[in-house]
Amino acid sequence: MAEVREMIAACEANNVVLVEAFTHRFDPHLRYARRLISEGAIGTVTGLDSVLTFPVAEPEGNVRFSEELVGGSMWDAGCYAVYASRFVMSAEPVRASAMAHDSGNWGVDTTFTGLLEFPNGAVARVGSSMEQARRCFLTAWGTTGTIHIPNMFDDSAPCIVTDLEGEETVYQEDAPYRFVAQFNEFSECVLTRKGPEYPPIDALRNTASMVALYEAAGSGGTVVVERV
Question: Helical H runs in 39-148?
């Protein structure tokens, strides 16, 4: 948290644009899910699953497995799962609990499972791994339906809404490459001095959830997420 605050202060002091590079928030499916949840389309959200996992074939020399360089699956991949949960809920978690596993005595988590509790009582299960098959999905369960995004990194992936009777409504549109969308927005901020859609305070809030998850995994208890 101190490092992120230092980055923010340095950029503000030097009139420099600072944005965290989470490309999936530019994809239509995640934005659509966020809007549906805010409108109560699936009732009150009671739970979420958000995961990013992939296998690393050659961990030796890979920065993700470096304790010295602060590797770990949650820092590297899980941050996207945490962000997606916060993004669609339009809210900040209040408590965290977690378990981490280091399969090869690397000094970092190779697989991580965490729980984030939101103010309304909804609990998001966030997962990351560098030793599991590739998964990158988000599911939100509500009192009147479910939202499922099967691949958050597929720009044009569907957002599937299912009611309690099992009837599906699929939202899907062709989307621009999310990295292009991100660079376009960032470039506009640099060239016109427009404020970014997601300013640095958003990055600080995501970091607060990440730090709480790691503290919870280390202590075996429940940790209060710092309010930012």
Answer: 73, 79-89
Sketch the domain layout of the chain as residue ranges: 23-218
Among 197, 146, 192, 210, residue whose Cα is nearest residue 4 = 210
- Let me know: does 118 contact 110? Beta carbons within 8 Å: no
Class of the CATH domain delimited by 23-218: alpha beta
pLDDT digits (tens, 9 = 90+) for 60-105: 999 999 999 999 999 999 999 999 999 999 999 999 999 999 999 9
136 Cβ neighbours under 8 A, 6+ residues apart? 51, 52, 53, 80, 151, 152, 153
pLDDT tens, position by position, 122-170: 999 999 999 999 999 999 999 999 999 999 999 999 999 999 999 999 9
